[in-house]
Design goal:
Blueprint lengths: L5 E6 L2 H10 L3 E5 L3 E6 L2 E7 H8 L13 E5 L3 H14 L2 E9 L3 E7 L5 E7 L8
Parallel strand pairs: 1-4, 5-8
Antiparallel strand pairs: 2-3, 3-4, 6-7, 7-8
Length: 133
């Protein structure tokens, strides 16, 4: 059995979502005329129109204005990269729900929502300050 995982994500407008993710520094490309492939490190996320997503899942998509269905967490190399990335998100039209801040003295992170309200978390972990067990 293959150990690859593809995440399927419903979006209202594949073209706008593709542009958003490229603008914030990810790599997204159109695949056919109804979906796009978003690559983050070794993870692949496929962007589908909501109607296509609902058809193959047999259920309605979550209303992200009232609830969260998942949060995608991404590692960052430094505090500065968290800050720079969050600025790109704001400029590209995303919304920030968690401003960059320190967590527990060894983590630094921020949270944002993409154009469709899907939630993302960016986190830098300073392992030299990580509590020892």
């Amino acid at each position: 059995m293959s150990q690859e995982i593809w995440i399927n994500l419903p979006v209202k407008d594949v073209e706008k979502s593709t542009a958003f993710f490229n603008e914030i520094g990810f790599h997204a490309v159109s695949v056919g005329n109804e979906r796009a492939q978003l690559s983050i490190g070794q993870t692949t996320i496929l962007l589908f129109p909501e109607s296509a997503f609902e058809k193959f899942t047999g259920s309605k998509t979550a209303d992200t204005s009232h609830s969260a269905e998942v949060i995608f967490s991404i590692g960052a190399d430094s505090r500065e990269k968290v800050d720079t990335f969050i600025q790109k998100v704001e400029s590209a039209g995303g919304s920030i729900f968690g401003k960059p801040s320190e967590i527990d003295g060894w983590m630094y992170g921020a949270g944002f929502a993409d154009l469709d309200g899907h939630r993302w978390n960016l986190l830098y972990m300073d392992e030299s300050k990580m509590p020892k067990k």
